[in-house]
């Protein structure tokens, strides 16, 4: 069980690497025709890009099917992929792109940095010259930026509180 959870967490971390490579070289590569839908403004509920959820969903399901009788390492790999998928959806689709209005603004430095990094990724609407392809791993410079903003907000809040 403990090994299983270890495999699951390791898969979760590896998935961030897989997602980065996929995003940079495949989605902004030969599968751009699918991913493009996520880089252009529209008012549809779904995007062609959402097919990737089906892809990772199928992948994890196969791991579950082949690894569950009896339960072996494949089951836990499937669990790790699922866990990453849920985290990705909550952060990328709900928190950053607000496809479901669930979270308000945050003063959490990590979440702010993550949001900024991804917004920079979306700045370029084309296939090339984008950056920040990862999701949960954020480059240190965004942390610095986010930290500065949060600190300023807090200072402003403190001044406001002193006045009232
Ligand atoms: Zn992209
Ligand atoms: Zn996005």
UniProtKB/TrEMBL annotation:
Entry-linked InterPro entries: BETA-OHASE-like
Superkingdom of origin: Bacteria
Residues spanning the membrane: 6-27, 48-67, 73-91
Keywords on record: Carotenoid biosynthesis, Membrane, Oxidoreductase, Transmembrane, Transmembrane helix
Segment forming the signal sequence: none
Family note: Belongs to the sterol desaturase family.
Protein name per its UniProtKB record: Sterol desaturase family protein
Organism: Pontibacter saemangeumensis
């Amino acid at each position: 069980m403990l090994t299983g959870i270890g495999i699951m967490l390791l898969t979760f971390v590896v998935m961030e690497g897989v997602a980065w490579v996929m995003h940079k070289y495949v989605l902004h590569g030969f599968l751009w025709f699918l991913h493009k839908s996520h880089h252009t403004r529209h008012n549809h509920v779904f995007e062609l890009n959402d097919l990737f959820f089906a892809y990772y969903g199928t992948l994890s399901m196969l791991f579950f099917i082949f690894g569950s009788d009896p339960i072996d390492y494949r089951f836990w790999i499937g669990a790790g992929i699922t866990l990453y998928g849920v985290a990705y959806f909550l952060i990328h689709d709900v928190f950053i792109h607000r496809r479901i209005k669930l979270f308000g603004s945050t003063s959490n430095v990590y979440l702010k940095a993550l949001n900024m990094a991804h917004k920079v990724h979306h700045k370029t609407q084309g296939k090339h010259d984008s950056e920040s392809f990862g999701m949960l791993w954020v480059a240190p410079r965004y942390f610095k930026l986010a930290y500065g903003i949060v600190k300023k907000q807090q200072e402003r809040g403190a001044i406001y509180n002193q006045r009232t």
